[in-house]
Amino acid sequence: MMMDDDRISSEQAIALIVNAAIGVGILSLPRVAVKSAGPDCWIVVLLGGLIALLGALVVGGIIKRLEGRTFVDYMSFVFGRPVGLILGVVYGIYFSLIAAVVLRDFAEVMKNFALEETPLEFFVLTLLLLSAYLIRHGLEPMARLMVVNFPFWFILSVAMLILSLYNADFSELLPFLRTPPEKLLQGALSSMLSLVGFEVLLTSAQGLKTVKDINKVMVVSMGIVTAYYTFVVVTVVVSMGIAETSRTIWPSMAVVRRISVPGEILERMDALAVALWVVVVFTTVCAYYFAAAITFTNVFRAREFKIFASILFPWTYLAAMLPQNILEVEDWLNFAGNFSILTCFLIPIIILVAGMARNKWGKKG
Amino acid sequence: MKLRKIILAGLLSIAIFVVSGCWDMVDIDRRFFVGNIGIDKAAVDDKLKVEFTMPIVRKISGEGGQGGGGGGSTIASVSTVADSIHAAARQMSHRLSRRLFFEHTRVILIGEEAARDGIEGVVNFLSRNTEVNRRGRIMVVKGKAEDALKVKNEYETLLAMYIANIFENWTFCSKFIEITIDDFMKSAYSTQGNVLLPRLTPGKIDVSIGGAAVIKNYKLVGWLDENETLGVNFVLGKVRGGDLTFKQQGEDYPVVMSIVQISTKTELVEAGTYPKFKISPRIVADIVETPVDMKIDASMIKSLEKDLEEKVNQIILKGVKKLQKEFQVDVLGFGEYLYKYRPGIWEYYREDWENIFPHVEVIVDTKATIRGIGASL
């Protein structure tokens, strides 16, 4: 099990969720939202945020019921040992898969916008090494880093996007609400996939100092994530237009590239954007990598957590290098997204309901 | 302890590979900074003749005792025949000692014939490429792009700076299309290739940017002259300044007004078989020149305002008529206006918009105010 003093406060939990949720979506979410809902893209993101919040509250409900047990143990308690272990492995695979796909998307962006000749393997390997180094120290140091990191990239990226508003055309968001409701819903579901991240807390919950404020933690962190993403989508769309956003792989990067403050004091801020991108992705990868390692630790009831960080290392790397090109990476991202419907919504709901039933039934018996 | 030291030494030597430098480093003296890209139709079938110009830094800085550009031109230009722009850049590597670098490209010139064949290639190149500066300018050359790139004058050391900086005079004339590569890409995507691009006419020692190239479905279909472009700019609300000249009855010398401030409102008045639009520019202007004997008083200002309004109405209608009748291409944003502000009505027209647009009725209602009259009564 984990070290006893390796516990995080509620504020650190918020930072953990926000850092896990805000990642590759920054660059691709505007395209996803615009593709499904056109000018109503921002509504789609807000709706997605609402759905994600519901999922987050379910997860919060489970965390409250853990009562010191690990998530895997709780699943075993609810469904019986074999099913609990299988679900544990499913979660472990899910977390490592997300870490791998995020890493790969990160590498693709780096290659396209900054270092063209550098091999993809190099980006993936270095960032993965760094993450492995960080998570081996446990939950609390990682959460502390995220708290320190958060204002740094948050303020800078918001400021950068505000600069891009110099030739914004807000009429790009018109006509208002002409998208058919089923398309809105579909868009909300696909944007929600960029907003999830709260599920990392499921397996890290054993490290929470207190679960009293868990609902508050969920609401605040999902609020920050949704507000941030809505802001990103709106700024990108108003400065780039609907049509071009839907055809650009990384619209936010394209927007940053065209920043030109009158007087040419600040121009072409790609370098800064790429630097922020590294930080943002790094925190996401860490959160998921850690979640994967701790899940496997709990599945095997291992004493030593560090060993799983090392065991997962080559597999994550291989999974990240599996796709042949960016289109396959997109397929993988979609697959991972659909996977997260299962892990963030369906399974938690079933667990929560079954857990409640079990408690009731248990009391009667 | 000894083992530890060995491991440490090993790790440190591995670090050499990681921290010693950058994979992608190309030193500044190994690059050519392309300033202009010129695209022409080649004499050979279906190929492009692509021309790159780049400054020779050595000549500009006057190194080696040559003295500020003393020995020949400061600009090198190379051209090749290829299937595409990227292929052309790659072919250059057979002939150039350095790598072509597009981050500082200021101007992309498309020759008339190449533009008539279609500019999808350019759009696609620009959207996939992450190197070209999106704040650069793109325009169509009346004639051949290479002729524009041959222009030599003393005004500026670099041709690209010379051409790009002409755009900054836009606030004085408004008679060309002010557009960056970025704006161009945005509108090309949202209208499926119906855009106006600035027109550049090459001369012997200088170039003139004025008027517009009308692009329909990514193909050049014709030109608008300076005044028609001004009219279109009025409709688009893109006029920032510029002069309007007209003659008063019985006077030899014209009255010249300079636009100070303008805002344009477009609205849909009627949606019958064909929609009817009302364009209402609000103009504030200064009097710059008048005939010597003209006395300016309140009633004269009233009458001059009337004349100015009349003049602007004419200019706008002329530009709009030409686009409607001659080119039948909606670059005025009428379709976009309907889509954004009247989506219900747009549903009704959208299918057949290309055929409806030429019949759209346009009324212009200019309101002009004269503010400054200069230092003379």
UniProtKB/TrEMBL annotation, chain A:
User: Which ranges does the record mark as transmembrane?
Assistant: 12-30, 42-63, 83-103, 118-135, 147-166, 186-205, 217-243, 274-300, 307-327, 339-357
User: Major location, coarse class?
Assistant: membrane
Keywords, A to Z?
A: Germination, Membrane, Transmembrane, Transmembrane helix, Transport
Q: According to its UniProt record, where is this protein located?
A: Membrane
Record-linked InterPro entries: Spore_GerAB (IPR004761)
Q: Is Transmembrane a UniProt keyword of this protein?
A: yes
Membrane topology per record:
Multi-pass membrane protein
Q: Which GO terms describe its cellular component?
A: membrane
Q: Which GO terms describe its biological process?
A: spore germination
User: What Pfam families does the database record attribute to this sequence?
Assistant: Spore_permease
Q: Which NCBIfam families match?
A: 2A0309
Query: What's the family?
Result: Belongs to the amino acid-polyamine-organocation (APC) superfamily. Spore germination protein (SGP) (TC 2.A.3.9) family.
Q: What is this protein called?
A: Spore germination protein YndE
- Which gene produces this protein? yndE
Automatic annotation (TrEMBL), chain B:
| Membrane topology summary | Lipid-anchor
Q: Which UniProt keywords apply?
A: Germination, Lipoprotein, Membrane, Palmitate, Signal
Q: Name one GO biological process term.
A: spore germination
Q: Where located?
A: Membrane
Could you tell me the superkingdom of the organism this chain comes from? Bacteria
Question: For the Spore germination protein N-terminal domain, which residue ranges apply?
Answer: 24-201
What's the main place this protein lives? membrane
Entry GO terms, CC: membrane
Q: Which family does it belong to?
A: Belongs to the GerABKC lipoprotein family.
Can you name this protein?
Spore germination protein B3
Q: Which organism encodes this protein?
A: Fervidicola ferrireducens
State the encoding gene.
gerBC
